[in-house]
Design brief:
- The chain is mainly alpha-helical.
- It has helices at about 15-30, 45-75, 80-95, 95-110, 115-125, 165-185, 190-230, 235-245, 255-260, 265-290, 290-300, 305-310, 320-335, 350-355, 375-400, and strands spanning about 1-5, 10, 130-135, 150-155.
- The strands form two sheets. Strands 1-2 form a two-stranded antiparallel ribbon. The protein has a two-stranded antiparallel sheet with strand order 3-4.
């Protein structure tokens, strides 16, 4: 006897049984895998999952406010209740960057919802984006207008915090979650109570303890960049641009570095040009191998989202350095300046180019005393970096064959 299979072919019961077994095997392979104690953790895979999740979290937190800053300011929306509320909400995204990093890292490991929340909270509380202190009796709450009747903690959103510490804490939280699942069966039926307390609170405390030491890394980088400001204008501009072209593709905050050393004037312009140099090189390669959305995201400021592909092949940083070195020369020649706030932005929201042309009454002359015209701006911010980017691409990719565009393939 034979039966009909797939609506077209006739087969025996034996062949149909084999086919059913194959269907069952494929269904098992395609079932979503949940992170648990039996999950195999390999060092390289672990590192790149943390890196990829961190990149995604940074982008979610940084891009909205950066892209909309000048749109809200110059469209007149900033003077409306709607615009001011939107700006405040988007700015708050920045203080949630550690939370977003923890969440995205947990999702990279396919954790269940409880563990995702625990890892995200542990990362947030340990990274300094939310700070707290004890307010004395009689403290006037600026939101409610009510005075406290007893000493109480107050919490203040304070920027993005330390992103490097956020990455470290998220990795520790993932590892602790794996250990708990492997050796304590994930706390069993009381996981909903113990996981937030022990994993979330415990890892959060560890992260807060190591935060000052991790912060020394950013301080050291800032001190190194600050030494460049003591050189003559052209060497100074080249070295600062090269430094920021690499910093923008790492977890370190370019804006944080600039603010820490009060980088202004030509130094700020050079830093922004370094960010732009990296953007140009990434765009040249991304449009060939990535989906259009990835390339658009890079143009809008998603350079840190490319960390996994760049870290997988560090030689791809060489074109960043050459492009930034060439692009920095007009910065010194045309005295292109900026403020500590705009130093790390580049093309993001057109913050750096606009600042170099438009006088801001809130910026004192001691910070920025020279502005360029639109023609010089187009030459310096657009034409020179693009030409330099293609020169670097030819030298390192075509001539020396150190990398190919597919090395920049990345999902954001």
């Amino acid at each position: 006897m034979s039966i009909k299979a797939d609506g077209q072919k006739w087969a025996t019961k034996e062949s149909q049984a084999v086919r059913n077994e194959e269907y069952a095997r494929k269904a098992l392979e395609n079932m979503p895998v949940t992170f648990n104690g039996t999950t195999e953790l390999k060092l390289k895979d672990f590192f790149f999952k943390v890196l990829s999740g961190s990149a995604q979290g940074i982008l979610i937190g940084v891009l909205p406010a950066a892209v909309m800053k000048y749109i809200i300011q110059y469209s007149g929306l900033g003077t409306t209740v709607f615009g001011s509320n939107l700006s405040a909400i988007l700015t708050l995204f920045t203080s949630l960057i550690p939370f977003l990093i923890g969440m995205a890292v947990a999702l990279q490991f396919k954790m269940k919802s409880l563990d995702v929340g625990v890892v995200a909270i542990a990362t947030e509380v340990a990274s300094g984006s939310i700070r707290w202190a004890q307010a004395p009796t009689g403290f006037l709450n600026p939101v409610t207008g009510i005075r406290s009747l007893a000493p109480a903690n107050i919490y203040i959103a304070s920027g993005a915090g330390d992103v490097i510490n956020a990455m470290i804490v998220s990795a520790i939280a993932v590892l602790v979650t794996w250990l708990v699942s492997r050796y304590l069966r994930g706390f069993g039926s009381v996981a909903i109570i113990l996981s937030p307390i022990i994993v979330g609170g415990g890892v959060g405390l560890v992260g807060k303890t190591i935060a000052p030491y991790v912060g020394d890394v950013t301080t050291w980088i800032g001190n190194l960049v600050e030494t460049f400001t003591k050189f003559a204008p052209i060497p100074m501009a080249i070295l600062i641009a090269m430094a920021f072209s690499i910093i923008i593709i790492t977890p370190v905050s370019t804006v944080g570095i600039a603010l820490a050393i009060s980088l202004s004037g030509i130094g700020s312009g050079a830093a922004a040009m370094g960010v732009i140099a990296t953007t140009i090189v990434l765009l040249i390669n991304s449009w060939r191998v990535n989906k259009p959305g990835v390339t658009v995201a890079i143009a809008l400021g998603a350079m840190k989202g490319m960390m996994p592909s760049v870290f997988a092949k560090p030689v791809t940083m060489l074109p960043f350095l050459l492009t930034s070195a060439i692009s920095a020369i007009p910065v010194a020649l045309f005295n292109i300046q900026g403020t500590p706030t705009t130093a790390g932005f580049g093309y993001i929201g057109l913050v750096s180019p606009i600042q170099s042309m438009v006088k801001d009454p809130n910026v004192p002359a001691t910070v920025m005393n020279h502005f360029i015209n639109p023609m010089i701006a187009i030459l310096a911010w657009l034409i020179v970096p693009i030409v330099a980017g293609f020169i670097a691409q030819y030298v390192f990719s075509k001539l020396l064959k150190l990398y190919v565009p597919s090395d920049f393939q990345q999902e954001l």
